[in-house]
Amino acid sequence: MLIFILKRVGLGLITLWILSVIVFFAAQVLPGDPARAILGPLAAPSAVKALAHQLGTDQPVLTQYWHWISHFVRGNPGTSYQYRGAIGPLLTTALGNSLKLAAVAFVIVVPLGIIGGVVAALNVGKPIDRIISVFGLSATVIPEVVSGIILILVFGIALNILPISATAPPGASIGTQIYHLIMPAIPLVLILFGYIQQMARTGTVEALASDYARTATLKGLPRGVMIRRHILRNSLLPTITVIATQTGYLIGGLVLVETLFRYQGIGSLIFNAANSKDFPMLEAGVLVIGIVYMVATLAADIIYSLLNPRIRHRGIE
Amino acid sequence: MARDTSRLDTIRADRSELENHYIDELVSGSISRRQFVRRGAVIGMSASVLSAVLTACGGANNTSSTPASTGTTAGQPTKGGTLKLALQTPAGAINPLTISDAGGLCMLAQTGEFLAFDNNMALQLQPMLATSWKPNADGSMWTFSLRPGVKFHNGAALTADDVVYTFQQLADPKNTSNALSTFTGVLKPSGVVKVDASTVAFHLEAPNGNFPYLVSSDNYNAIIVPKGTDFAKWQSTFMGTGPFKLRSYSQNAGANFVANPDYWGGAPNLASTAFTFYASQQPQILALQGGQVDVIVQFVTQGAQSLLNNSSYNIIKLKSANHRELSMRNDMAPFTDPRVRQAIALALDRPGMVAALLSGDGVLGNDSPFSPKFPSTNTSAPQRAQDIAKAKQLLAAAGHPNGFSTTLTTEQYEEVPALAQVIAQAASKIGVTMKLKVETQTNYYGKSTYGNSDWLDAIVSLVDYGDRGVPNVFLEAPLTSGGPWNAAHFKNPTYDGLVKQYVASVDLQTQRTLAGKIETLLLNETPLVIPYFVDGLTATTANVHGVNPTSISAIYLKDAYKA
Amino acid sequence: MSIGAVPVESAGAVESELRGEFLRDLVHSKTFIAGACILGFWIFAAIFGNLLVPHDPLAQDLTGINKPPSLSHWFGTDQLGRDMFARVITGARDILITAPAATALGTALGTALGLVMGYFRGIVDDILGRFVEAFLALPLVVTGILGVIALGPSNGTLILVIGIVFTPLIARTVRAAVLLERELDYVSAARLRGEGALYIMFVEILPNVLAPIMVEFTVRLGYAVFTIVTLSFLGFGIPPPSSNWGLEISTNYGLVTAGYWWEVLFDALAIASLVVGVNMIANSIESELAP
Fold first, then answer.
1. N- or C-end of chain A: fewer Cβ atoms within 10 A?
2. Is residue B250 very low, low, confident or very high in pLDDT (cuts 50, 70, 90)?
3. Is there a contact between C224 and C282 (Cβ–Cβ < 8 Å)?
């Protein structure tokens, strides 16, 4: 197990390094000039030149990369060109905001998805199974723009019961913050519901067909108890995988929801950094998403192998 | 008009040549009372002198012809309370040297003050940290007297040293200051000289009749900071002399200010102000409607239709020089022929554009940067109107009876992409096909130098220009032969000469004569099209009074209160 | 993915028989029929829409802006007075060119990459695998934005960027299928015959992994629409004035607070119907090929 983890971490680090190189060179191709982006189109060329020198963007590309990475590995992500301030606090605030939004989405979608999956599995082949599955799969491909706009029109404008801006007023209580995050979370819920429901359904179907379920039924265990004791646990497992594989999407792919609902998360941070050629910010943002993604996948794999009765069983034998 | 000649003569005796010139113009009726007040203020005539002259000329001695703030007289101002305002998120650190965006400059103006204040509501340049100013004979040297008894928020007194330090930093090319776009060719650091503890002289590189505007709130970077200030760290203190002091500033989120009881102009009505930053307009409108904010500092009509004509809100409209420029490459076929450029200009339905794109909150443009807002604007030039037949005729005469095809490049900014589509539609009526290329602002501006910028290199380019107190930058940068933003690649020695004379001229009559010549030349040549000027808009709830916005998106809250 | 295990001798005959059965099953699937009808409608609208709609989708009327739905303008007019019904119907065109083209490009590149990784395994697989992982760690939209900013928005850029973004995803699936195939007898036989790697990959293995590739193609097609709409909304899609659902929503979105709901709702519904239609087709193909 330890060797497995070490190997995964090692490979993960190599991947992150490759990612940093890809983003670095992609950023070089982006049009525009950081100093110009900071000073605006109307600044004098001499001012732009001086600032470029201050920022070090007039150095050769490889020097810039070395300068950046040697600081980054020592835990210093550097200074944002655009904000002319340390990246650390900006990044953690944005990441915190994105995590809040993701958390609200998960709190809604995980129970819904599991219930949907179990109900479908208990009714395999019946219309209810078909309806839930088709709905789930369709919802998965509906762009957040579409679901978001319809939600805004219905709940934000027509009924006027939910705020259409995800950002709560400064100093708002946690309750108010969550209230503001409900509508932005729903497009995410719609997208994730299909995945979790499918996984939970498959897990439950397999569990129902398994030996212990049959034995339990033979032993006369009430169906409700059996579902609670065995099936739920088994359908929870694949959910962990979905959460892990969708973390990348949830943390960084929120650009759209963040734009639509005007929320300052890491998605919009990266989006703005790319637009204003704020290279250190872009690199740091992308790498943070990469790290979160890798950690989540690894953690899921470990939890999965620890919890999975089949794998554990094999281990005992 | 009853005129008291003997009283006027007494006043004249003490006045400078230039001041007497304005008095002459007022007496002869060539400038209005309002323009007299405005111009007189620029050259440093004090309020008492101005009103004395006006009294001598008959009529009420009211120097501010419009109320200085909204809400007018709803009784006695209420004291105390917090005013909540929605503002565009500042684009970067709040550094007085580098700020160049609407949100940032509004932040500077909350605690910082300028030598002079361009009061857009009153259309008047007013004293602020300077009590008076005077030019020398040709306008190449200006002397400012500082207000006595002004204290910074840390208790230190304002002196000439602070003013000299501030302007030397702003004008120093090494500091990459945004104010260099104003000061380059006008003021060098060595030109800022301390005369005595409360007097500062500015020795200019060339005569400039409008210099006081360049050290006023129009040049939003020029807030006076204590000598030795590290501009990069200014954000942590917001050290200034204004009616409000910093309580807290949180990047990307908002800022809070509290009343400064020691303010030289008396403590403000409000106990505090709270700004919330928004990345876009829509949530600001929702916040105003939802009661989370009392004021939207600046907005555009697109998407804000629900606020207009609604008695729950006051909309403050300010005439502005904010405009859009459609430049056509004067050095590239088919636009080398002025008739082709005129044809494009004649194809446009300007009143239709203002009505549809600005909901009517704008003024027709006449293809010159002389906005009706500027006193020097010469209104004798005929307004250009849509004339499809003449446009077709001009195109045919220029050898394009069947039109031609070209590409219009523009930026994603406010209503600009929509304007581009309206222009393309209008061009198609005279047989000209315009393909559109709409880019993000970063892509569009590129490096902002010739050869590295779609803005400056594209054959047809549509760009926005923000408001300014005087037309100088608009006349020079995008139109003179050596101008850095000459997207039209217009090179005309006659024009260059006229602009040079205009900038150097100190008296209004000369300025207006030259403006007329420039306007006529631009109509004949049509290097670029200016379809309209956009009004500056501020929204408040109906119970808010006394806010004083400017058309560059700053807002002054000293007299503001909530009823 | 048991389709790949067809014995090599009778591959041709069995395949055509399977294909016939597969199509028969498909047309009997209600999901497939419904999906095909929706997609068919939009393809029809994309090709003939200009001829059918009562107004020119580009014709402006500055005196009739932001008008709610009425008998003359069924879906109302937009901020330049253009007919929304005409714009929604003709808005299908660009997306129905770019989405399939991008998916095809991604499928072609991904198949090639997956074949190479799966067939060679070892060091080639490890190195390419790291790159694939690195790409996968980035959200699709972020990669897409970087690409479009770098290359400038146009239909060509969209196709290229989305194609490249899809490549590692498709490569991963193809690689997994190839790993199973390469252990089978017919591959060893070909190797013994002395066939080159390229021949074995593209002539021997490729036909046997077509099923998962086909499933990938249809599934990705839905995501291509998703991605194009998203990029267009963020301002990185097809430029104006051509009507385009994502861009339309992004330009008119600011107006919903003014109450002009018709300027975004119909575009949103059009997108939803197209993605759901494509997804229904993808699902039925998937369940037929891998029951």
1. C
2. confident
3. no
Supply the pLDDT for residue B194: 95
Kindly determine whether residue B282 and residue C259, on different chains, have CB atoms separated by under 8 Å. no
Question: CA of B234 to nearest chain C CA: how many angstroms apart?
Answer: 34
The torsion angles phi and psi of A57, rounded to 5 degrees, stand at -80, -5
Provide the pLDDT confidence category of residue A246 given band limits of 50, 70 and 90.
confident
What are B200's strand-pairing partners? B144, B194
Q: Would the pLDDT of B165 be above 60?
A: yes
Shortest CA gap C111–chain B (Å): 34
Per the CB < 8 A criterion, the answer to whether C38 and C280 are in contact is yes
Closest CA to A22 of B198, C130, B277: C130
Determine the 3-state secondary structure of C237 from DSSP.
coil
Residue B99: is its pLDDT beyond 60? Answer: yes
Confidence class for position B331, pLDDT limits 50, 70, 90: very high
A165 vs B283: CB contact, 8 Å cut-off? yes
Q: Which residue shows structure tokens 């917001």?
A: B238
In three-state secondary structure terms, B70 is: coil
Q: Which residue of C has its CA nearest to B350?
A: C62
Per the rule left: phi > 0, alpha: psi between -120 and 50, beta: everything else, B64 is beta
Return the amino acid letter for C56: D
- What ipTM was assigned to the predicted interfaces of this complex? 0.78
- CB–CB of A11/A274 below 8 Å? no
Query: Is the pTM above the cut of 0.95?
Result: no
**What distance in Å separates the CA atoms of residue A60 and residue B232, rounded to the nearest whole number?**
26
Least confident of A307-311, B22-26, B485-489, B497-501: A307-311
CB contact under 8 A, B447 and A83: no
Q: Which residues of A touch B287 (CB under 8 A)?
A: 165, 169
- DSSP string of B242-259, one letter each residue: SSEEEEEEETTTEEEEEE
Cα separation, C150 vs A28, whole angstroms: 9
Helix or strand (DSSP H, E) at B536: strand B536-541
Rg (CA), chain A: 24
Of the residues A149, A254, A268, the best mutation for testing chain C's interface (the one with the most C CB atoms within 10 Å of its CB) is A149
What is the Cα–Cα distance from B371 to C85, expressed in whole angstroms? 40
B413's tokens? 């900014």
Q: Best residue in C257, C263, C264 to probe B by mutation, most B CBs within 10 Å?
A: C257
Angle at C178 between CA C176 and CA C179, to 5 degrees: 65
Residue of B nearest to C258 (CA): B306
Mapped onto helix, strand or coil, the DSSP state of residue C290 is coil
Contacts of B250 in chain A (CB under 8 A): 170
Token pair 């980054």 is at which residue? Answer: A72
Distance from first CA to last CA of chain A, Å, rounded?
17
pLDDT of residue B65: 36
- Please enumerate in sequence order all residues whose Cβ is within 8 A of that of B503, keeping only pairs 6 or more positions apart, or say none: B206, B207, B208, B209, B210, B472, B475, B476
Per-residue model confidence as pLDDT tens digits over A173-203: 888 888 889 999 999 899 888 888 888 888 7
Q: Which of B303, B356, B443 is the closest to C254 by Cβ?
A: B303
Partner-chain residue, chosen from B93, B173, B280, that has the shortest CB–CB distance to A262: B280
C-alpha distance from B168 to closest chain A C-alpha (Å): 15
The β-bridge relationship of strands B536-541 and B272-278 is unpaired
Query: Could B443 and A32 be called an inter-chain contact, meaning their C-beta atoms sit closer than 8 Å?
Result: yes
Q: Determine the Cα–Cα distance for residues B545 and B557; give it in Å rounded to an integer.
A: 10
In a mutagenesis test of the C interface, which of B440, B445, B462 is the best target, namely the one with the most C β-carbons within 10 Å? Answer: B440
Residue of chain B whose Cα is closest to the Cα of C145: B440
> Mind telling me how many Å the CA of A80 is from chain C's nearest CA?
18
Contact A262 B174 (CB under 8 A): no
